[in-house]
Amino acid sequence: MTVNNRPISGESPKRDCSASANCRQGHGRFTLRRLVPVGILLAGLVIAYCVGATEFLSFETLRIHRGELQNLVAQNPVLSVLGFILVYIVVVALSLPAGSILTIVGGFLFGVSAGTIYVVLAATIGALIVYLAARYAFYDYMHAKAGNAIRRMQEGFAEDALCYLMVLRLVPLFPFWLVNLVPALLGVKIRAFLLGTLIGIIPGTFVYVSIGDGLGALFDQGKTPDFGVIFEPRILTPIIGLAVLALIPVAYKKYRKHKAGTPAS
Protein backbone atom coordinates (compact mmCIF):
# COMPACT_ATOMS: atom_id res chain seq x y z
CA MET A 1 0.00 0.00 0.00
CA THR A 2 1.25 3.51 -0.84
CA VAL A 3 0.50 7.08 0.08
CA ASN A 4 1.27 9.72 -2.56
CA ASN A 5 3.18 7.10 -4.55
CA ARG A 6 5.47 6.36 -1.56
CA PRO A 7 5.55 3.06 0.30
CA ILE A 8 4.10 3.08 3.83
CA SER A 9 6.75 2.96 6.56
CA GLY A 10 7.92 -0.58 7.25
CA GLU A 11 6.94 -1.80 3.78
CA SER A 12 9.95 -2.24 1.52
CA PRO A 13 9.54 -1.82 -2.23
CA LYS A 14 9.52 -5.02 -4.22
CA ARG A 15 12.40 -5.67 -6.58
CA ASP A 16 12.04 -7.42 -9.84
CA CYS A 17 14.96 -9.81 -9.45
CA SER A 18 14.01 -11.97 -12.39
CA ALA A 19 15.16 -9.40 -14.96
CA SER A 20 18.66 -9.03 -13.49
CA ALA A 21 18.98 -12.77 -12.96
CA ASN A 22 18.00 -13.44 -16.53
CA CYS A 23 20.44 -10.77 -17.67
CA ARG A 24 23.32 -12.40 -15.81
CA GLN A 25 22.25 -15.81 -17.04
CA GLY A 26 22.06 -14.60 -20.63
CA HIS A 27 25.36 -12.78 -20.32
CA GLY A 28 27.12 -16.00 -19.37
CA ARG A 29 25.20 -18.32 -21.68
CA PHE A 30 27.34 -20.30 -24.09
CA THR A 31 25.86 -20.56 -27.59
CA LEU A 32 27.09 -22.33 -30.70
CA ARG A 33 26.66 -19.12 -32.69
CA ARG A 34 29.56 -17.62 -30.78
CA LEU A 35 31.80 -20.45 -31.97
CA VAL A 36 31.39 -19.60 -35.65
CA PRO A 37 34.48 -17.32 -35.97
CA VAL A 38 36.66 -19.78 -34.04
CA GLY A 39 35.24 -22.63 -36.10
CA ILE A 40 36.17 -20.85 -39.33
CA LEU A 41 39.74 -20.38 -38.11
CA LEU A 42 40.01 -24.02 -37.00
CA ALA A 43 38.61 -25.21 -40.33
CA GLY A 44 41.16 -23.05 -42.14
CA LEU A 45 43.93 -24.51 -40.00
CA VAL A 46 42.88 -28.07 -40.83
CA ILE A 47 42.63 -27.28 -44.54
CA ALA A 48 46.06 -25.64 -44.50
CA TYR A 49 47.62 -28.77 -43.02
CA CYS A 50 45.73 -31.05 -45.41
CA VAL A 51 46.97 -29.19 -48.49
CA GLY A 52 50.53 -29.08 -47.16
CA ALA A 53 50.75 -25.32 -46.65
CA THR A 54 53.29 -25.71 -43.84
CA GLU A 55 55.56 -27.74 -46.12
CA PHE A 56 55.23 -25.19 -48.93
CA LEU A 57 56.19 -22.31 -46.61
CA SER A 58 59.79 -23.41 -46.21
CA PHE A 59 63.30 -22.23 -47.00
CA GLU A 60 63.66 -24.96 -49.61
CA THR A 61 60.66 -23.59 -51.51
CA LEU A 62 62.08 -20.09 -51.23
CA ARG A 63 65.49 -21.28 -52.43
CA ILE A 64 63.93 -22.86 -55.53
CA HIS A 65 61.64 -19.95 -56.41
CA ARG A 66 63.66 -16.98 -55.16
CA GLY A 67 64.40 -15.68 -58.67
CA GLU A 68 60.74 -15.78 -59.64
CA LEU A 69 59.71 -14.03 -56.43
CA GLN A 70 62.29 -11.28 -56.86
CA ASN A 71 61.13 -10.72 -60.45
CA LEU A 72 57.51 -10.57 -59.28
CA VAL A 73 58.37 -7.92 -56.69
CA ALA A 74 60.31 -5.90 -59.26
CA GLN A 75 57.53 -6.03 -61.88
CA ASN A 76 54.50 -5.73 -59.57
CA PRO A 77 55.64 -4.03 -56.35
CA VAL A 78 52.21 -2.99 -55.06
CA LEU A 79 50.59 -6.34 -55.82
CA SER A 80 53.53 -8.14 -54.24
CA VAL A 81 53.27 -6.14 -51.03
CA LEU A 82 49.51 -6.68 -50.76
CA GLY A 83 49.90 -10.39 -51.50
CA PHE A 84 52.63 -10.78 -48.88
CA ILE A 85 50.60 -8.94 -46.23
CA LEU A 86 47.52 -11.02 -47.00
CA VAL A 87 49.42 -14.31 -46.78
CA TYR A 88 51.02 -13.21 -43.50
CA ILE A 89 47.65 -12.24 -42.02
CA VAL A 90 46.20 -15.65 -42.92
CA VAL A 91 49.19 -17.48 -41.45
CA VAL A 92 48.91 -15.61 -38.14
CA ALA A 93 45.10 -15.84 -38.01
CA LEU A 94 45.26 -19.62 -38.54
CA SER A 95 48.15 -19.90 -36.06
CA LEU A 96 50.31 -21.73 -38.59
CA PRO A 97 53.93 -22.25 -37.49
CA ALA A 98 55.35 -20.23 -40.36
CA GLY A 99 55.47 -16.69 -39.02
CA SER A 100 59.24 -16.68 -38.48
CA ILE A 101 59.91 -17.95 -42.00
CA LEU A 102 57.59 -15.35 -43.53
CA THR A 103 59.25 -12.62 -41.49
CA ILE A 104 62.61 -13.60 -42.96
CA VAL A 105 61.02 -13.74 -46.42
CA GLY A 106 59.77 -10.19 -45.87
CA GLY A 107 63.34 -9.01 -45.34
CA PHE A 108 64.54 -10.99 -48.34
CA LEU A 109 61.93 -9.51 -50.69
CA PHE A 110 61.48 -5.96 -49.40
CA GLY A 111 64.56 -5.05 -47.36
CA VAL A 112 64.88 -4.23 -43.69
CA SER A 113 62.82 -1.04 -43.37
CA ALA A 114 59.90 -1.89 -45.63
CA GLY A 115 59.94 -5.55 -44.60
CA THR A 116 59.67 -4.62 -40.91
CA ILE A 117 56.72 -2.32 -41.58
CA TYR A 118 54.85 -4.91 -43.65
CA VAL A 119 55.44 -7.72 -41.17
CA VAL A 120 54.46 -5.67 -38.10
CA LEU A 121 51.29 -4.47 -39.82
CA ALA A 122 50.28 -7.95 -41.04
CA ALA A 123 51.14 -9.70 -37.77
CA THR A 124 49.11 -7.17 -35.78
CA ILE A 125 46.06 -7.60 -38.01
CA GLY A 126 46.33 -11.40 -37.86
CA ALA A 127 46.70 -11.31 -34.08
CA LEU A 128 43.65 -9.03 -33.83
CA ILE A 129 41.56 -11.55 -35.77
CA VAL A 130 42.45 -14.32 -33.32
CA TYR A 131 41.85 -12.01 -30.35
CA LEU A 132 38.39 -10.95 -31.57
CA ALA A 133 37.33 -14.51 -32.42
CA ALA A 134 38.41 -15.84 -29.02
CA ARG A 135 36.87 -12.93 -27.11
CA TYR A 136 33.55 -13.25 -28.93
CA ALA A 137 33.42 -17.01 -28.37
CA PHE A 138 34.60 -17.44 -24.80
CA TYR A 139 35.06 -14.25 -22.78
CA ASP A 140 31.48 -13.65 -21.59
CA TYR A 141 31.02 -17.28 -20.61
CA MET A 142 34.36 -17.51 -18.80
CA HIS A 143 33.81 -14.19 -17.03
CA ALA A 144 30.39 -15.33 -15.80
CA LYS A 145 31.75 -18.66 -14.56
CA ALA A 146 35.07 -17.39 -13.19
CA GLY A 147 35.81 -17.63 -9.49
CA ASN A 148 37.26 -14.90 -7.33
CA ALA A 149 40.86 -15.94 -8.01
CA ILE A 150 40.38 -15.76 -11.79
CA ARG A 151 38.63 -12.41 -11.51
CA ARG A 152 41.44 -10.99 -9.41
CA MET A 153 43.91 -12.18 -12.03
CA GLN A 154 41.79 -10.57 -14.75
CA GLU A 155 41.64 -7.28 -12.89
CA GLY A 156 45.38 -7.30 -12.14
CA PHE A 157 46.32 -8.04 -15.74
CA ALA A 158 43.81 -5.60 -17.24
CA GLU A 159 45.00 -2.76 -14.98
CA ASP A 160 48.45 -2.76 -16.61
CA ALA A 161 47.59 -4.71 -19.76
CA LEU A 162 49.71 -2.62 -22.13
CA CYS A 163 52.89 -3.11 -20.08
CA TYR A 164 52.34 -6.83 -19.58
CA LEU A 165 51.52 -7.36 -23.25
CA MET A 166 54.65 -5.56 -24.37
CA VAL A 167 56.73 -7.85 -22.13
CA LEU A 168 55.02 -10.96 -23.52
CA ARG A 169 55.59 -9.75 -27.07
CA LEU A 170 59.18 -8.64 -26.50
CA VAL A 171 60.50 -11.75 -24.75
CA PRO A 172 60.12 -14.82 -27.01
CA LEU A 173 59.09 -17.24 -24.25
CA PHE A 174 55.52 -17.96 -25.30
CA PRO A 175 54.07 -18.91 -28.72
CA PHE A 176 52.63 -15.99 -30.67
CA TRP A 177 49.20 -17.66 -30.91
CA LEU A 178 49.03 -18.13 -27.14
CA VAL A 179 49.69 -14.44 -26.50
CA ASN A 180 46.85 -13.70 -28.92
CA LEU A 181 44.41 -15.87 -26.98
CA VAL A 182 45.16 -15.13 -23.32
CA PRO A 183 44.47 -11.36 -23.44
CA ALA A 184 41.12 -12.07 -25.10
CA LEU A 185 40.13 -14.44 -22.29
CA LEU A 186 41.34 -12.01 -19.62
CA GLY A 187 39.26 -9.17 -21.00
CA VAL A 188 42.11 -6.93 -22.16
CA LYS A 189 40.76 -3.95 -24.07
CA ILE A 190 41.31 -3.88 -27.80
CA ARG A 191 43.33 -0.63 -27.69
CA ALA A 192 45.84 -2.09 -25.21
CA PHE A 193 46.05 -5.30 -27.23
CA LEU A 194 46.74 -3.47 -30.47
CA LEU A 195 49.35 -1.13 -29.02
CA GLY A 196 51.06 -3.88 -27.02
CA THR A 197 51.27 -6.09 -30.09
CA LEU A 198 52.23 -3.36 -32.54
CA ILE A 199 55.06 -2.01 -30.38
CA GLY A 200 56.13 -5.23 -28.72
CA ILE A 201 56.84 -7.23 -31.87
CA ILE A 202 59.02 -4.59 -33.52
CA PRO A 203 62.43 -5.63 -32.04
CA GLY A 204 62.01 -9.35 -32.81
CA THR A 205 60.65 -8.57 -36.25
CA PHE A 206 63.61 -6.33 -36.99
CA VAL A 207 66.03 -9.13 -36.06
CA TYR A 208 64.43 -11.70 -38.37
CA VAL A 209 63.88 -9.24 -41.21
CA SER A 210 67.57 -8.31 -41.00
CA ILE A 211 68.44 -12.00 -41.38
CA GLY A 212 66.20 -12.13 -44.43
CA ASP A 213 67.97 -9.17 -45.96
CA GLY A 214 71.11 -11.30 -46.16
CA LEU A 215 69.33 -14.51 -47.08
CA GLY A 216 70.58 -14.54 -50.66
CA ALA A 217 74.19 -14.77 -49.47
CA LEU A 218 73.29 -17.67 -47.18
CA PHE A 219 71.59 -19.51 -50.02
CA ASP A 220 74.65 -19.00 -52.21
CA GLN A 221 76.73 -20.67 -49.48
CA GLY A 222 74.26 -23.55 -49.23
CA LYS A 223 73.13 -22.48 -45.74
CA THR A 224 69.79 -21.66 -44.13
CA PRO A 225 69.05 -19.14 -41.35
CA ASP A 226 69.25 -20.11 -37.71
CA PHE A 227 66.05 -19.22 -35.82
CA GLY A 228 67.94 -19.49 -32.56
CA VAL A 229 69.87 -16.31 -33.35
CA ILE A 230 67.35 -14.28 -31.34
CA PHE A 231 68.43 -16.14 -28.18
CA GLU A 232 72.06 -15.13 -28.58
CA PRO A 233 73.13 -12.85 -25.70
CA ARG A 234 74.08 -9.95 -27.98
CA ILE A 235 70.49 -9.87 -29.32
CA LEU A 236 68.44 -11.19 -26.42
CA THR A 237 70.01 -8.91 -23.79
CA PRO A 238 68.78 -5.62 -25.34
CA ILE A 239 65.32 -7.14 -25.85
CA ILE A 240 65.16 -8.19 -22.19
CA GLY A 241 66.28 -4.68 -21.30
CA LEU A 242 63.31 -3.27 -23.21
CA ALA A 243 61.00 -5.71 -21.41
CA VAL A 244 62.34 -4.52 -18.05
CA LEU A 245 61.72 -0.92 -19.08
CA ALA A 246 58.15 -1.85 -19.98
CA LEU A 247 57.63 -3.17 -16.46
CA ILE A 248 58.91 -0.03 -14.72
CA PRO A 249 55.48 1.73 -14.76
CA VAL A 250 53.90 -1.38 -13.20
CA ALA A 251 56.57 -1.56 -10.48
CA TYR A 252 56.24 2.17 -9.76
CA LYS A 253 52.47 1.94 -9.51
CA LYS A 254 52.69 -0.97 -7.08
CA TYR A 255 55.30 0.89 -5.05
CA ARG A 256 53.01 3.93 -4.82
CA LYS A 257 50.11 1.76 -3.68
CA HIS A 258 52.26 0.01 -1.11
CA LYS A 259 53.59 3.32 0.17
CA ALA A 260 50.09 4.80 0.38
CA GLY A 261 48.88 1.78 2.35
CA THR A 262 51.79 1.88 4.83
CA PRO A 263 50.97 3.92 7.96
CA ALA A 264 53.35 6.78 8.74
CA SER A 265 55.74 6.14 11.63
Automatic annotation (TrEMBL):
InterPro entries: TMEM64, VTT_dom. The keyword Repeat does not apply. It is found in: Cell membrane. It comes from the Bacteria. Residues 99-213 form the VTT domain. GO terms for cellular component: plasma membrane. Residues 1-20 are annotated as: Disordered. Keywords: Cell membrane, Membrane, Transmembrane, Transmembrane helix. Its main location: membrane. The chain crosses the membrane at residues 35-57, 77-96, 108-134, 161-180, 192-211, 235-252. It is a multi-pass membrane protein. Belongs to the TVP38/TMEM64 family. This is TVP38/TMEM64 family membrane protein.
